[in-house]
Amino acid sequence: MPILEVKNLNVRYGEQIILDNISFDLEKGDALAIIGPNGSGKTTLLRAILGAISFEGKITLVENARIGYVPQKIDLARDLPITVGEFLSLKDAGKSAARQTPAYSPKESLNLVNLSPMFLKKRLGELSAGELQRTLIAWAVIGRPSLLLFDEPTASVDVAGQETVYELLHRLQDKYGLTLILISHDLTIVYRYASKVLCLNKAQLCFGIPAEVLTPGELTKLYGGGRKFYHHMHSEN
Amino acid sequence: MDSEFLRTAVAASLIAAAGGALGSLALLRRMALVGDALSHVALPGVALGLLFNFNVFLGALAFLIFGVIIIWAVEHKTKLPVDTLVGVLFTLALAVGAILTPKENILDALFGDIAGISAFDFWLASLISLAIIILLLSFYKKFTLSLISPDLALSAGQKPHILEFLFLVIFALVTAVGIKFTGALLMGSIIIIPAATSRNVARSMNQYLTLSAVIGVLSAVFGVLITNLYGFSLGPAFVLFAGALFFISIFFRR
């Protein structure tokens, strides 16, 4: 039974079509990468799954599904007087507290993303971009989600840090059977970490296993002609 | 110390504590100006109360709730720019209020009238302020989350739009109880200045919230003292003291 089923999803802002007839489904443990050019509706699709916007069509989540969400950026004032520990305990206020599976403690969730407990006392504004991103991941996994939505993990992290965030996601996925949806611009990441890929340009141009559906022809259709795609094969070692 | 002085000091402190706590949350979302504008919307209600001789609290509250509904609806149900509309709405309210307010009351309505506090007003203001403080403390995590990031709040199973509306209603309540003391023009300062001061020095949410309330209370007590000694209006006395603390706090910015 699929953990997420999206059927004939349409999103419009007035006359403007943002998402046009999207249908796909995910099994437990899948890692879905959503790719597409800017303005193709990637974030909108995540927000629809999250229930943040109104849409037509059907989005069915498996019963008792818990969603964790890592936004692309979080618009915090740098001088906001809130510590990481306080931030992580805000989630108790959500529904997660009422569920049978107990949520992680703030300390445990920091541990999951390889941040030391001393970060509990730091203010959010003091963190580096990479640390903030890890904190947001800790926030997302604290309620033991079954589905993790991740909006462009690399957006604020340098190249050296990039791999570790993906490795981190990969590790969480392996360990907890997490289902993952991530938006990515980086095809290398898609080939390496995604079990399924969805090509989006308002309409759904492809859906399937990356190595099968990401043909040069499909990519040209998705991003337009005149762009060369370099795909570095990584040997598994 | 006479009992009227004490009564005023207690009521003003409770209002300032509620205002400070509320302000610390409002500044999370940079809502300072919405709040300031909102307090002006109360003026026509105050004017009607003065004209037709009913408690200005009721008049102020009615107009404030109306203002809250408009601001909330514009933000979530239309594509109109909120800032612009708030700007138009509050100057409009100020104009209507200024025309309606009897000439001899205009200064009191704008800057507060502490001498006019009755026993009933005292109890009303104190109890409502106390209720607001309790409400804010019990919902503070939810408010914090939905104010700093509606998307994260949503993913945690909250309903940020509803929480935001509830927050604005509490905002309206604080403003309505405070307006008799500080007047419409200065009400925003009760909410903004202590929170802004606290934000300069606080190192955590707990400190921030507590310190906002404490600074509010200190400023209120100082304001009442000065008012008693020199016969100023409470509103300006409060703002002068709180404003001075704010400028001092800048030097202690962490």
From TrEMBL, chain B:
Per its UniProt record, what SUPFAM superfamilies does this chain match?
Answer: ABC transporter involved in vitamin B12 uptake, BtuC
The yes or no answer to whether the keyword Transmembrane helix is present is: yes
Which residue spans traverse the membrane?
6-29, 41-74, 80-101, 122-140, 165-196, 208-226, 232-252
- Known Pfam families for this protein? ABC-3 (PF00950)
Query: Which superkingdom is the protein from?
Result: Bacteria
Q: How does it sit in the membrane?
A: Multi-pass membrane protein
Arranged from A to Z, the UniProt key words for this protein are: Membrane, Transmembrane, Transmembrane helix, Transport
Q: Where does it live in the cell?
A: Cell membrane; Membrane
Q: Name one GO cellular component term.
A: ATP-binding cassette (ABC) transporter complex
Q: What are the recorded Gene Ontology BP terms?
A: response to zinc ion; transmembrane transport
Q: Which family does it belong to?
A: Belongs to the ABC-3 integral membrane protein family.
Q: What is this protein called?
A: ABC-3 protein
What organism is recorded for this protein?
Candidatus Giovannonibacteria bacterium GW2011_GWB1_44_23
